[in-house]
Amino acid sequence: VSFFSTSTDLSNRDRFPYFLRTIPSDVNQAQAIVELVRMFNWSYVSVVYEESSYGIQGFNEVEKFLKLQGICIARTEKLLKDSGVPSEEFYDKIVNNLKESKNARGVIIFASDQEVGELMKAVRRKGATGMFSWIGSDGWGARGLAYLDKEAEVEGAITVQPLAYEVAGFKDYFLHLTPFNNDRNPWFVEYWEQHFQCKFPGSSWTPYNSNYNTTCTGTERIDPETFIMEAQLQFVSDAILAFAYAIHNMHVNVCGRSYVGVCPAMDPIDGEQLKNYLLNVNFTGMSEQHFRFLSNGDGPARYRILNFRQTFLGKYEWKTVGYFDNGRLFDVQDLRFQLDEPHHPSSVCSRTCGPGEATYLLDTQCCWTCAKCHTFQYLPTMYECKDCPYGWVPNADKTNCVMIPILYLRYDDGMAIGAMVFSALGILMTGFVTVAFIRYNDTPVVKASGRELSFVLLFGILLCYSMTFILVLKPTNFSCGAQKFGIGLCFSICYSAILTKTNRIARIFRAGKRTAKRPKFISPKSQLVICGGIVAFQNVVGAMWILLRPPEPMMYYANRDDHQLVCKDAVGGYNMIGFTYPIILVIVCTIYAIMTRKIPEAFNESKYIGFTMYTTCIIWLAFVPIYFSTAYDIKLRIATMCYSISLSATVALVCMFTPKMYVILTHSDKNVRKSFASNVTRTYTSPSTGTASRPCTYTSVPTQKTNTVELLKPAMKKSVSNKLSPSQESRTGQSISTQTLDSMDDILSSKEIAL
């Protein structure tokens, strides 16, 4: 049973089946050392070990535990011991090598005190004092050869030492020993001579006592204040007591409790049997500590953690700062590196990468570079930056991706509220005008405005205002389809009605300049058929668009931090397919408005149509570039579309119906048939003479079936015109109504045209 052998080889039961020890194995010491490295959060250390069984086996165990913990070894240096005595240059080279790994400031030394002492001298010679933080084995911790006269170089060192407590009463016992009362110990006289530097009378010659000039009396006394006792005496006493308890237990069981002396059954002792009794001893030793062997015959894995520190300037001490037991550290506190720098330095090859930074390994797993992930990348592992999917962004620490809130135009958005309020007011205004037109359906003003087309126009305006509420719906298959079909339909209804009106006016007055024959297709029914045909073409376009490109919602990403839910056709210029035909109608209506601008003032509805189309063109010229410039924000694009559609409807409502509503509501006295009479004076040129005839004045004739005359051809011959009496002239003259075009159809078919 050994009390001081720590080599890991001795734990091999196959090679040393009868070897036991009360001191722990170096395997446990290596584990304690690596736990200290972990405590400092070091990941990059150097290891120095001596060339001996103790050093090599210790290094092997340290290396194994470092790898298990993912701690890298920057350098390994071997101190010569068994193969010879190294020179100072050898130690200097080791220090230089350690200095090259400047980030590895933590150094593990698994060696004996003499070799460590020489290494510390080299540290001083190479100016590396204070550069390294040492973690040492029990082979040199608290041993004078390692630190005496080298305190500055060793300062801050942390070593492990098998945990042993003072054997009670042994110090007092030893201090009272003399050569006279301790003659059983043959080495005690030699110790006495060495301690007091004298030669004891009658002692044997030694290489040392021949140099002593004084004679020992044997009455000298050892000073208790300067006496330093071996700290690990507990292992000696535990080894002795282990044998005592094992033999005692074996004797009781084999010989019987009452048998005195060694019985025949124990003579000779069976070694295998005795080993089993040793492995099962369980007692409290002389140090008051409980002891029992581990299953492999090693002593309990208990260590004391020592720190060599400077308590004040020039004063150093080894202080217990913690313990290691059963594979873990505990009560570790009050560690100190240097007097002016209490914290031990960091020993890492590379700094820990910050949040959002990927680790790219270099030569070893402990050395790396850090690369910051881009704005939209996250870290699925610490070694890789990866893009988040579109519509997702990394969280704050970039460990995963989180979905960007889905954006679409909602009813509670400010833009949507404004558009809906505007449209709601427009719907109320349209409803008010519609009710008024129905109420005064048979009045001249309503009749003169073309009742049928007016109601078609009002219906189209109502659809325009209603489109806002469809456009702000959450994108679905239904809402997207309604948008595709509705944006073209509502405008087509409006502008087909206006186009039919302007075309009818233009054809009537163009025909009036050439012939007295009535133009075709100017009756109300014909006008409705023409209007319906124009709208039907838009319906065909809308149906084909839906069939060829079915409506559906989709996710749209204008940029990497965008996540919009939109209708598929809201992206790009696809909605312009629905607007193309209405734009053509607007252009044609505008052309007709320009063509009819010189119609007599009495037919002032053409003037209002012109105002409507000019203003509409301005709105659309502004809308189209805004539409294409808001491709990045579909919400804004939809809101712009809502306002543009409502503005176009408002222009048509105000310009086309305000004058009529003004007469209907505030000047009912003018809303009678006689107020529509007016005088139109024209000068005609005789085709036969080429001279201008006198002006012909046409007045209304109440007795006629018709109310208005659009076209009259005066007499071409001067002789005929001269024969006309004033009454006849009055009789044959016809006036032109200011508004009513419908009644013109009857006059154009009449044969009562004076020549």
Mean pLDDT equals: 82
Strand content: 5-15%
Count of discrete alpha- or pi-helical segments spanning 4 or more residues: 21
Class per helix and strand makeup? alpha+beta
Largest sheet strand order: 2-1-3-4-5-8-9-10
| First-last Cα distance | 153 Å
Largest sheet, in brief, is: 8 strands, mixed
Protein described:
- Residues 675-755 have low confidence and may be disordered.
- Helix 14 (477-514) packs antiparallel against helix 15 (524-548), helix 15 (524-548) packs antiparallel against helix 16 and helix 16 (575-595) runs antiparallel to helix 17 (605-629).
- A hairpin with a 6-residue loop joins strand 15 (392-394) and strand 16 (401-403).
- The protein is of the alpha+beta class and 755 residues long.
- The chain has an 8-stranded mixed sheet with strand order 2-1-3-4-5-8-9-10, sandwiched between helices. The protein has a two-stranded antiparallel sheet with strand order 6-7.
